[in-house]
Amino acid sequence: MNSNNPRLDNSRVIRAPHGTALSAKSWLSEAPLRMLLNNLDPDVAER
User: Fold this and answer.
1) Phi/psi zone of residue 29: left (φ > 0), alpha (ψ -120 to 50 degrees), beta?
2) Phi, psi at residue 39, to the nearest 5°?
3) pLDDT tens digits, residue range 7-45?
C-alpha cells in the first residue's frame, strides 16, 4: 500500500461548505452532499 495516499492521511480535516455557493451541479444533489460532509466536519458532527 502506498504511504503517500491522501485518503489514509488522518491529519486532514474535512469542512462542509457554508453559504449558497454550490459544490454540486444542482441543489438536488447538493443537499445529500452537504449532509454527508456535515457528518465528517468536526465542528458540526455529533460526538
Assistant:
1) alpha
2) -70, -25
3) 777 788 888 888 899 989 999 999 999 999 888 888 887
- Please report, for residues 1, 5, 6, 29, 45, the alpha-carbon distance to residue 38 in angstroms, rounded to integers and kept in the order given: 29, 23, 20, 15, 6
Neighbouring residues of 6: CB distance < 8 A, sequence distance ≥ 6 = 12
In angstroms, rounded to a whole number, what is the distance separating the alpha carbons of residues 13 and 47? 16
Q: Is the pLDDT of residue 1 over 60?
A: no
Report the distance separating Cα 9 and Cα 25, nearest Å.
28
